[in-house]
Amino acid sequence: MVNRHRGETALMVAGQSLPMRLTLGALAELEEAFAVDSLPALGEHFIGGQLSARDIIRIIAAGLRGAGQAIRDEDVAGLSFDGGLNGVISAAITLLEATFGGSDEARPPQPPAA
Fold this sequence. Notes:
Largest sheet: 2 strands, antiparallel
Helix content: 40-55%
Strand content: 5-15%
Number of strands: 2
Number of domains: 1
Structural class: mainly alpha
Radius of gyration: 13 Å
Number of helices: 5
Shape: globular
Order of helices and strands: EEHHHHH
Strand order of the largest sheet: 1-2
């Protein structure tokens, strides 16, 4: 069970709910992966709406590791996500909103319409 007050969300994989959370360490990992030097710059990168499949993999993997899962980016790339592409994009967006807030002004990109 996830605790939204701690910024936790869930990723659904093969019918299983996996907790995710962007801890300070996970955020530092993403700063390095996206070559930015601050949390505001990281947030701005996500707001830009130009996330690639590789970006989604990095976000999901960092969130899983932040919640205690021992998983590599390569492992995430091979998972079978419930809801397919829309499901994993929605999970990444929900994780970012839980971390950075979900205001309309600073809203990360939305998943494509089904």
